[in-house]
Every structure is written in structure tokens, then in C-alpha cells.
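**Protein record**
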Amino acid sequence: MVLVGLAVAAPSTEAGEPPAEVVRGLIDTLRRFETDGTAIPQAERRSIVQAAHARLDFEKLAREGLRDAWTGLPPQKRSAFVNLLERVFAEVAYPQSAKFFGTLKLEFGEVRGRGEQRVVPVAVSHPDEGLVDLEFFVGKSGGRWKVQDLSLDGISLGRDIRSQMYAIVSKDGYGELVRRMKEKLEEQDS
């Protein structure tokens, strides 16, 4: 889950941008993480991360993953948690996604849904994974279309992430989830 000049602005994700273009833009942005092993200049990396973040609904993922713990957090802690989640995606998920998508040819299917929810089907033939069916669930957030979930061969990655977060919070508390997320970032840095 690709290289443009340093002055690239975050893409527009206005409500008028069709959901399929939000998905296409996200995948193209994530592909920019794939390099020939050379480091991406910091300013360009920030631009890539900002463009990807603009297309994902992190607040919904956090709210649904934390459930009751979310309602008990003051606004500044909610914001801090969303920022931490964004950092985990930027450092871990985006580079892994870039490796998965690489230069694969994508076949976009017909967008389904109505109102403020859409499903954007994408088929890819991956050399290691075979034929993979993806469904991007896109919804309105803050007046913009954003990816809210991704199903990989029928398995919801968003649900999996939310379940993992909730299981940790339920068993060990919110603080333990934050500790583990920070630990994951530290592992990535080393």
C-alpha cells in the first residue's frame, strides 16, 4: 500500500471526488512508499503521508476500536490517540501496503451503494497471493469521501484492527494499548 516532486500538495478529497478516485488516489499515494531501497527525502515522505491520511477515516477507526474507552477520553486524549494511530499507519502499514501493491495492475469494478456509503471493488493478480479481491468501503466523513474499511478476500482489515484494539483495552486497559502502539513504533525505528 509510490515519486513526485517535493511540492506535492495533499490531493483534494472534496465530497465531489468520486469514491473510486479516492481509492485510486490512496493506492497511488501508498505506492510512492515503494523505493529501490533508497530513503525517501523527509519532505517528500511527509507529503506522501499527508496525502494518504487525507483519504482514511482514522477517527472512525479509533472510535470504533476503543468503543466505551473512547467516550471516556477527553478531547485532547482522543486527538492524541488518533495521532498515534496515524503514526502507526505511516510507519508500519503504509510501507507494507506499498510492497503489496507494488506495480500490480488494478481492475476497478463498478462502485456499489448509495447515500453516504459506497463499496469500491478492486481486483488484483498478485504473484505471491494469486487473485485477490479487495473491497474498499468509502463513507462521508467531515463532508469528504474517505476510506473507512478494506476487505481482503472477504476479511475486513478494519474489523480486525478494531477487534485487536478492543481486546487489549478490555483486558489490559487503554494505557496498555497506547504502550503497545508506541512500542511498535520504537521497533520500527530500530
In short: Confidence is low (pLDDT under 50) at residues 1-15. The CA atoms of residues 3 and 32 lie 5 Å apart. The helical segments are 19-30, 42-53, 58-66, 68-72, 75-101, 157-172, 174-189. The beta strands are 106-108, 117-126, 130-141, 144-152, 155-156.
